[in-house]
Structures are given as structure tokens and as C-alpha cells.
Amino acid sequence: MAPEPAETVEDKAPAAPQKPLRADAQRNRDRLVEVAAVAFAQNGVDASLEEIARQAGVGIGTLYRHFPTREHLVEIVYRREVEGLCQAADELAANHPPDVALEQWMQRFVDYIATKRGLSTSLRILLTTNSTLFSDMSGRVTLALRRLVEAAVADGSIRGDVDASDVLHALGGIYSAPDTKDWRDRSRRLVKLLMDGLRFGAKGS
Fold it and tell me: Where do the segments described as Disordered lie (predicted)?
């Protein structure tokens, strides 16, 4: 095997910053990611890229200019879902009582899991090439949930012996449930049952 070329000064130089997208190009990109998230959640990672482009109102060439590979699109969709989930935690906490914010966030978590299940095959591929992606993203989700749980415990609206890691473990069971047509509806009912258990015996109940 030929030796790898020696590192040059050019190799060490920082990459030039990317130019910001034009407003229309940014709208196209955002729309593609939004449509892809729905498509992957409904049809899995093999969802047609041509159909995603069509529903986003752009040509397939535009899709590939923004996302050269399917895995690239998958990664961006996954990051978007995590960002949305974490942002939802802050917004819900600011606008609802702590236990209501927690319950609504867990219902939003069901949608996140639906998309993640659809991305599972490509996410496993990404795991071999970007090992920090999942630890970084899952860490952010855990912190968002911990803030909500701790606020509800402090408020007395859920039990005081609740730990965020236990709640996350319970929610994780949704991910491994059989993929049936009524999976999402059953998952939402399970969240309600979980919240009933978290509220049972709380100081404010």
C-alpha cells in the first residue's frame, strides 16, 4: 500500500467559510428538510428523493446541490429533529405549568422517535463515520428532558422520587415497539399513562 502523502501547509489551513445562501436557496433547503422529515417518518429511509423534491416544489438537481448524498440529508434531518425537540422544551416551559410542559414535550418526543425510526438504517451507517454525532445529540435531548422533569418535581406537580433518566428509559421503550399502523396513537396513549404515574402521589395532586 502506498504511503499517505505528507501533510502540507495547505492541509493545515482552515477551510474558507461558506457563503450564506441566498434567501430563495435557503427557503428551498429548509423546505426540503421539512418534507424529508415527514417522508422518512412515514416511509422510512428509502423514501423517494425524487418525491421529496417534488413535494418541496424543486427539481431533483436542487436537492442534490444541497444534499449530495442520502446520508447527508438524513444527518441534517436528524439534527433538525433534535434542535426542534430541544427548542420545544424551552418554549413549553415558558408557556405552561411544569407538568403540562413535560407531558406536551413527551408527546412531541413521539414524533421525534417516529422520524428516528424511519432514519434507523442510515443512522447506523452514519454511526460508523461520525461517532460524536449521536453522543452530542442524545446528550442535548437528555438535558432538555432533565430540565423539564426537575422543574415539575420542584413545582410538586409530579412525584419527588422521579429521575429524568428513568423517564427517558420509559420513553425509549416506544422506539422498540412493533411498527404497526397504530404505533403513533398507542405511543401517545402510553405517554398519558406515564404522566398519570408521574403525577400519582405528587404534592400538588
Answer: 1-26
